[in-house]
Amino acid sequence: QDKLARLTRNAVAEVEGNTDYWYQRCSRQQGALGFGRGVPVLPAMFSPKPRVAVGIDTSGSMGTRELEKALIETQGVLRAVGSEVQFVACDAAVRENQRVRSVKDVLPLLKGGGGTSFIPVFEALNAEKQKPNVFIFITDGGGRAPSVAPKGYKTIWVLCGAHRQRPFGEDYSRITWGDFIEIDD
I need a surface site. Which of 45, 50, 101, 171 has the fewest CB within 10 A? Predict the structure, then answer.
């Protein structure tokens, strides 16, 4: 839990720390300098909001205890981020893909119970106009994932349950991309 909190804070801090100058709008201090020819233009400051996505594996291999742990970790992520996150529930297909603010919003979205494939989750995230900066996926790992890391966002795999394992790629070898965290029983 400490490692997940640290990785989440680091991923979010990378985005929060990207405060930059924005010349599409003037600074509020521009009026003190004046406007017109020969007067420097002071840019406004721009600080993007971090985009975080949380996914929970809702396949049949994720039992009640694993889903309880997933909800606890989701609550921790929501607390660490401090704003709404994109939530994805999947088994062999994406069952839900919505923005949530609390665990109470997540509970009715836990649908699934079938087979397991993580490929549709990454396809759904890659199809988004604005990809997340970090994707936290809570699973037992018993499924197929893309063999190559998705571009544009960081992935944190949270493996839980008695039969937790690293997911295997499309070529059936264990994936090595992303950060892995194991939650003990």
Answer: 171
Q: Measuring CA to CA, how many Å separate 43 from each of 15, 30, 32?
A: 20, 8, 13
pLDDT in tens, 83-115: 789 999 999 999 999 999 999 999 999 988 888
| pLDDT > 90? residue 7 | no
51 vs 119, residue with greater confidence: 119
Q: What is the dihedral of CA 100, 103, 50, 73, to 10 degrees?
A: -150
